[in-house]
Amino acid sequence: MKPLSVKIYGTGLIGTSIGLRAAELAWPISLIDSADGPLQIAKDLIPSNREIAEPDLIVIATTPNAAITLIPKIAESHPAATVIDVSSIKTKVQAKVSEISDLDKRFVGTHPIAGREKNGPQAARSDLFMGRAWVLTPSENVDSWRLETVTEFISAMGATPYQMSTKLHDALFAKISHLPQLISVALASSISELGPEISLAGQGLRDMLRLASSDGLLWSEIILDNKDDVLASIDDFQELLDVLRDSIEDEDGVRIKDMFDDANFVPEKIGGKHGMKRREYTFVDVVIDDKPGQLASLFDECGSIKVNIEDLSLEHSPQQETGLIRLALSSNDAELLFKHLLARGWKAHKQ
What we know:
The chain is of the alpha/beta class. Helix content is 46%, strand content 16%. It is built from 13 helices and eleven strands. The chain has helices at residues 13-24, 36-45, 64-77, 91-98, 144-156, 166-190, 203-208, 216-225, 227-249, 253-264, 266-269, 294-304, 331-343, and strands at 6-9, 29-32, 57-60, 82-85, 107-112, 133-138, 160-163, 282-289, 311-315, 322-329, 347-350. The strands form two sheets. The protein has a seven-stranded mixed beta sheet with strand order 2-1-3-4-5-6-7, sandwiched between helices. Strands 9-10-8-11 form a four-stranded antiparallel beta sheet, with helices on one face. The protein is globular, with a radius of gyration of 24 Å.
């Protein structure tokens, strides 16, 4: 796509990450923030930042309530620009846009499905959106060329665009984003009074508590702005907890097992790379010696026969003489690589 001049309101994690990616693309960038601290960090990270009087695209990368306050001002000061927001609730923001004459012709609600436990510009990354889904919730009135521009912008950020209505978006994310956040916080609160023994927790608990370190001020705003859908999701979840509780009380192991069996299939529904249906990978495990250049040599072998590594993991302890790297590939690429590595003297195993 042709370069866009982009004005970004809000220099937190998302806004600064957009700026970093735009800088990589050599697009003109202008950063705005009411907080001097984050703004200065973002400007230091993106030295190409400059004032843009008439930007092609305005990105409102603030909290939902701040976005609602900014929208009328932006509509007045930039009457020609395409405008997007990146908040995780859409209905309330779109309602504000609809109050302003003709703004819904050039506004597209969006929600990048990307983030980190860390907040602020110091946590920003230019590749934050790479391979992630990015939802668009356009109104029926938006100009088609502006929607096309926003879609191309999302692709340029490295993400995969998906369209849905604001109503569907808020109901869906109440279940797949807002509810998990609340469950993690409630779980953390339920064990907060434990003593030093809490350090005995395994990886399962640590994984479940990852979301509990999120920004409480931001999340309280998101949850309250999506109150009805969040409450409905909590009620549905509570019903399932009650079923489990009754099953435990009744010592009904069959019903407990049935719930586990049903749950086992859910991870397969969650998207893999690019937010699409999870791919079936074949794994090639390669034993490597603990010496310089081993990983580079292995990747050179992969490159020499042009196989595509979809994912990888490395198992190795500091004092261990050997390590094991697991490569995830398509079935055909895995077979090709496996035979190639064996022929080249590598210790390879196909799973």
